[in-house]
Amino acid sequence: MAVHAINRLHYSVVSVEKTTAPEGMSGDNWHLYVVGHDNARIEGKKPGTLKQVTAHAEAFAEDLNSRTGKGGSTYAPRKKT
């Protein structure tokens, strides 16, 4: 069965910017990344260079995109056989 592109979500990196460390964490090289699709936004903080965090955010978006259209959530109840 073919999956039509129109039904697939396409998450992408919205932004990556320098930020402060999360409470209780040390270091001064933290970045806030935002991955989104339409009105859906996922934010994360990660230590590293701008290049490293951008690469992480891009890989995260690709992972989200690869999960779409595969027949339901892993958290959905299993069908009885």
Please outline the helices and strands.
Layout: E1 12-19, E2 30-37, E3 40-47, H1 50-67
Antiparallel strand pairs: 1-2, 2-3
Quickly count the domains: 1
How many strands appear in the DSSP assignment? 3
Gross geometry: elongated
The Cα radius of gyration reads: 16 Å
* Share of residues in strands: 25-35%
Description:
- The chain has 81 residues and is of the alpha+beta class.
- The protein is built from one helix and three strands.
- It has one domain.
- 22% of the residues lie in helices and 30% in strands.
- Strands 1-2-3 form a three-stranded antiparallel sheet, with helices on one face.
- The longest helix has 18 residues, at 50-67.
- It is elongated, with a radius of gyration of 16 Å.
- It starts with 11 loop residues before the first strand and ends in a 14-residue tail after the last helix.
- The model has no long low-confidence stretch (mean pLDDT 85).
